[in-house]
Amino acid sequence: MHKDRFYTLTASCPDRVGIVARVSGFIAEHGGWMLESSYHADDMDGRYFMRIEIKADSLPFNLTELQQRFRPIATEFAMDWQMSDSAAQKRVVLLVSKQEHCLYDLLARWQSKELDIEIPCVISNHDDLRGFVEWHGIPFHHVPVTTDNKAAAYAEIARLFHEARGDTMVLARYMQILSPELCRAHPGRILNIHHSFLPSFVGAKPYHQAYQRGVKLIGATCHYVSEELDQGPIIEQDVIRIDHSDSVEDMVRYGKDIEKTVLARGLRYHLEDRVLVHGNKTVVFR
Amino acid sequence: MHKDRFYTLTASCPDRVGIVARVSGFIAEHGGWMLESSYHADDMDGRYFMRIEIKADSLPFNLTELQQRFRPIATEFAMDWQMSDSAAQKRVVLLVSKQEHCLYDLLARWQSKELDIEIPCVISNHDDLRGFVEWHGIPFHHVPVTTDNKAAAYAEIARLFHEARGDTMVLARYMQILSPELCRAHPGRILNIHHSFLPSFVGAKPYHQAYQRGVKLIGATCHYVSEELDQGPIIEQDVIRIDHSDSVEDMVRYGKDIEKTVLARGLRYHLEDRVLVHGNKTVVFR
Amino acid sequence: MHKDRFYTLTASCPDRVGIVARVSGFIAEHGGWMLESSYHADDMDGRYFMRIEIKADSLPFNLTELQQRFRPIATEFAMDWQMSDSAAQKRVVLLVSKQEHCLYDLLARWQSKELDIEIPCVISNHDDLRGFVEWHGIPFHHVPVTTDNKAAAYAEIARLFHEARGDTMVLARYMQILSPELCRAHPGRILNIHHSFLPSFVGAKPYHQAYQRGVKLIGATCHYVSEELDQGPIIEQDVIRIDHSDSVEDMVRYGKDIEKTVLARGLRYHLEDRVLVHGNKTVVFR
Amino acid sequence: MHKDRFYTLTASCPDRVGIVARVSGFIAEHGGWMLESSYHADDMDGRYFMRIEIKADSLPFNLTELQQRFRPIATEFAMDWQMSDSAAQKRVVLLVSKQEHCLYDLLARWQSKELDIEIPCVISNHDDLRGFVEWHGIPFHHVPVTTDNKAAAYAEIARLFHEARGDTMVLARYMQILSPELCRAHPGRILNIHHSFLPSFVGAKPYHQAYQRGVKLIGATCHYVSEELDQGPIIEQDVIRIDHSDSVEDMVRYGKDIEKTVLARGLRYHLEDRVLVHGNKTVVFR
């Protein structure tokens, strides 16, 4: 992360000659200083992806005007695009259950400003982690989920996320499956950490499945939530070595270390606008 | 690998008090020097596994007599057991197709004596690698496999393996599926390298599957061949990081590096009697 | 970790025939159930190492009597040995400065009982983390260290550690160099996490050193503290990939993830009596 | 690697506004199709680096004319730059001693066209690997090196490299230290694989040094050779886990797997013009 304030342009469009020239020409013309720029051509689909950081004070106008002036180019190239401002903190709502490893990890990063975000609230289906969250000065909402109240519970979560003006929802080992409506409403904005190396061991109890199959590595996957369980676009994955002497309980313990690291990395890529969704896959400009 | 000649005992039996005491007591009583010893208790199944290396010249008798004298203990504890002699080179038959990376890798290890084995022959469904194999002084058998001649071809492979007095068959990127009869005839003695991190991407074209799913790591799996495709006990696995910029061809290229390394590690564990099969899983005493 | 209460024997002695037989024979004779056992022969130095877990309720007597009865064997084989009881929680004193990542990580593990220890107190040369520590119900001692008061400060730390009846001291990114007296007084009982892959980049600002040298991986090292800076026996290490685009600040950020993971692993090995010091090296029975 | 013929521009220059705009504008103006483009700004040194692949047949002229037309821009921005043609195979001279693992690995990659290079000859201070090299149809030169003939030997190597019109020299576990003259004559064109994770364990017998220090990971480093031993710019590194049970011989064996992989990766980056040297460091556009 650069210390100076910057604007980040992310865009994708059909590939053709002159995209970089046009975009970088536009930026240079206004004196824009590019701090970082990344490009990717998907040869299979003929689509072009880019991410550019422009130093804010190198431009003679603000983000709104930058967007206005860029619009004709975006239209000309049929771009899906967005621009963000590094000075505008993202608002990230965390959903947790009883396990604390991801929550402690994220709050440590938030506390030390490694994650430069607002956490307007934490939502949980259990009340266990209230004290820890509230000690950090963050509001905590207990929204129990039972077989009978699911619709109401998810409506309440949607309401809290809306009320909190959330940008991003993070399922930090939240042990419930969100409703299809909720998933559909926020594509590319809900991150989950799944405790297996997807596509292996979809669904419940992946460490039990891994134990049964006798794999020699276990993993974790950070992905965007889509309507189909554990099938959304993968952002980040990692694995850790195990062996025959490890029980399911050992795997659960090792797995936590991977889960929190992979979630933190995936979340950072997302927050820094490094992730561009492309169908059910992602381009991640690290 | 120890330089001195040694005998390796591998055994498994129902767990109970006194197994190690009885076995190590027997060895000590004859002056046997244990170079290396490993034990594992499977708490779920109540089964005990062990592997012990005994320096050959510390014993006053040879392997045959050692086996005879050990038999009563094995019977008393209801052991599945075997003993091998580090001086008796294993006879490993390699099966290849057209890709050379695993073959070059294994022959380099054999040439340098890192793999202290006999390779009585290499069998292939293509003739491409004949020259390379024969330059190393190893007989090469071309056994074409077509949709029509499968039964005959597999019978010929079985015959060649038998004739070569093979201990172990290694499918070093052999692009054919062995017959169920062949698999059944040599349980725990045919090793395959599958070019995915199993259980993800079973069967054909795993790199294409990985590309479609957008995973961030690809892997390889060395396993014993069983009748069911890619379902046998896993011996070793590893992964390598990829990203959105990698095409299927890039994955194939990266994958080769993992495939040959994982196969070489798995094969070494097997040859040093470090792998004990337990149902569809393995205990690997590294 | 096994759920049943167990005693752990760790021992090393000159290598000879019959060590395992004698020790396991002794255990079996009293009906002792071995949950886990590991052995290592150092061929260079002719020294033998072992670690055995015995189920407590399989023995007809308690730990004290077990120790008494074992003593003659230990004497016979000239063993360095100790026995511990899984029911006796270790008392771990944490030393921190201002950085919170290792502290959050360790307290998350302690909170979830993954680390089954007592933390009688946290000591720091800064007051910043007091609130977080005290929220967890753990006493916090602020012991400022200046160029002038070093001797008094270290005496105070020694006093607090003694008063807390500490078994183990953990420097969880404590940015001061302990006094030689303190190091000498607790060999094999003070763990440090150094933010480089030792022996590269000893001393101050290792990430700056790594940046200057242009390495492609950075690491962290958990080691026992000895009198010579960053030269003590290494318990655990790991690395993470970086590239030319990473600034020193990026390395610091990535490094934290490695530091906390490596410290947690090293500490767990230590607490479970899996680490046997051998000269300036360690045997780690994972 | 793209299948279509392309030209690769690599350049570095003082950082300022408009570099990408100017370069990509020039390319677009002639209809140039950018297959891949990577940029890096070194904020500490204020220097900008880039690498661009342009599809050859998208341009209306050949490489020579492209270079001519680009020259004014290069001058304007004070660039260090070069352009290469993917159709022009690089000529890589290998230097080996007795160990074959890197040689087998590189020749397997060359044989399968993974490495699309010419190998005009292999030079060795021993005659052992002649047969293997010549079987591949590659000339082999035996240039013995003794304490007395060093100057003459290195002159002969220089002559052979010149005669072979070599672009790149690869020390594939060549166990001699090249003369300062030879190193000076070919900066950024001689690659070495050192069998440690530099800067740890410079010089001779790094595995012995690693064993003595008791590290828990060993590594390998691919770097450009400079006059100072093992101090040149690092291109690629990797590590592998070891433990207390591994002897120096085991490390040597594990190390080989890392050495050949790291050398192959580093060499590929170099051959694809992905490595830009910057002082004693490298920018590697993977």
TrEMBL record, chains A, B, C, D:
Residues 8-97 form the ACT domain. One of its GO terms (biological process) is one-carbon metabolic process. Coiled coil: none annotated. It is an enzyme of class 3 (hydrolase). It comes from the Bacteria. Pathway: Purine metabolism; IMP biosynthesis via de novo pathway; formate from 10-formyl-5,6,7,8-tetrahydrofolate: step 1/1. It comes from Georgfuchsia toluolica. It catalyses: (6R)-10-formyltetrahydrofolate + H2O = (6S)-5,6,7,8-tetrahydrofolate + formate + H(+). GO terms for molecular function: formyltetrahydrofolate deformylase activity. Keywords: Hydrolase, One-carbon metabolism, Purine biosynthesis. Catalyzes the hydrolysis of 10-formyltetrahydrofolate (formyl-FH4) to formate and tetrahydrofolate (FH4). Its EC number is 3.5.1.10. This is Formyltetrahydrofolate deformylase. Belongs to the PurU family. The active site is at 230. InterPro entries: ACT-like_dom_sf, ACT_dom, Formyl-FH4-Hydrolase_C, Formyl_transf_N, Formyl_transf_N_sf, PurU, PurU_ACT.
